[in-house]
Amino acid sequence: MKPPPGTTTIAAAVCALVAVSVASAVAAGGGEQPLSRIAIHRATVAPQPGAFVDASPALLGLGGKDREWVTLRYSNPKPSNDDWIGVFSPANFKYIS
After folding, report:
1. 7-38: string of b/e by CB count within 10 Å (b at 16+)?
2. What pLDDT score was predicted for residue 92?
3. Which member of 5, 77, 83, 95 lies 3.0 to 4.6 Å from 50 by CB, making a disulfide possible if both were Cys?
4. How much is the pTM?
5. Would you say residue 67 has pLDDT above 50?
6. C-beta neighbour count of 49 within 10 angstroms
């Protein structure tokens, strides 16, 4: 059974567009980490009374684990659109005493 006329052309065009999109996305990054553009040096610390952030477990990499889920609990009685929480862990962590 032959595909409908033009199907191969459309499939080739879609594949080409996807390839170009992926290539341009990779080139646009230039190896730069997306979070590196956050101007952390301009951040201000102004915690509100009653606001908290709690992460568990408190220490990663115990027992020789090299990956682990982290649970965050947070609350702010007066949240704003400018509030954010940054969580960072190295890609390969090991506990060293």
Report:
1. eeeeeeeeeeeeeeeeeeeeeeeeeeeeeeee
2. 62
3. 77
4. 0.45
5. yes
6. 6
**Which tokens hold the place of 65?**
């684990």
Mean pLDDT value of segment 8-30: 52
Say if residues 89 and 69 touch (Cβ distance below 8 Å): no
| Residue-wise DSSP of the chain | -PPPTTHHHHHHHHHHHHHHHHHHHHHHHTT--GGGGS-GGG----PPTT-EEEEESSS--GGG-S----EEEEE-SS--TT--------SS-----
- Decide if pLDDT at 65 tops 60: yes
Between 24 and 78, the more confident residue is 78
Judge contact between 66 and 94, C-beta under 8 A: yes
How would you class 62 by CB atoms within 10 Å of its CB: exposed for 0-12, middle for 13-18, buried for 19 or more?
Answer: exposed
